[in-house]
Design a protein that fits this description.
This protein has a single domain, classed as 3-Layer(aba) Sandwich (Rossmann fold), CATH 3.40.50.2300. Helices cover 42% and strands 20% of the residues. It is built from 6 helices and 5 strands; from the N terminus they run βαβαβαβααβα. A 5-stranded parallel β-sheet has the order 2-1-3-4-5, sandwiched between helices. The radius of gyration is 13 Å and the shape is globular. The chain starts with a strand and ends with a helix.
Length: 126
């Protein structure tokens, strides 16, 4: 049996963390560790060593792109794929955004779970 995909989810909205953790775990494919504390996200990601990190872009303490840049510069975490989550764009707008690496792995928080799963699979197997 294949191993579950290990995800660290960082979003300042605890309700969204709980919902996505429940929905992704229910598929039987994912093991999710979620936190709404962006200031501890780097330590959590280093500790958990996930297969992928899902980061909210707009967080109060540290911006998701800033966190991803820090992860990319650290040899311990540079190989972890990043999927950005944003409540500031609709699913339709995401499909029109392109070019900038920081936005090529973006998904709307309003996207249905199957689209999130497809984005995770796409980020892990480009």
């Amino acid at each position: 049996m294949p191993k579950n995909i290990k995800i660290v989810l960082i979003d300042d909205d605890q309700d969204l963390c709980d919902l996505l953790t429940m929905e992704l775990t229910a598929t039987g494919r994912f093991q999710v560790t979620a936190s709404n504390q962006s200031e501890t996200a780097l330590a959590l990601i280093k500790t958990e060593r996930p297969d992928i990190a899902i980061l909210d872009i707009n967080m109060p303490e540290i911006h998701g792109v800033e966190l991803a840049t820090t992860l990319a510069q650290d040899p311990q975490t540079a190989d972890i794929p990043i999927l950005y989550l944003s409540g500031m764009v609709s699913p339709e707008e995401v499909s029109r955004i392109g070019g900038d690496h920081a936005l090529t792995t973006l998904i709307s928080k309003q996207s249905p779970i199957p689209e999130l799963i497809a984005a995770i699979d796409g980020a892990l197997h480009p």
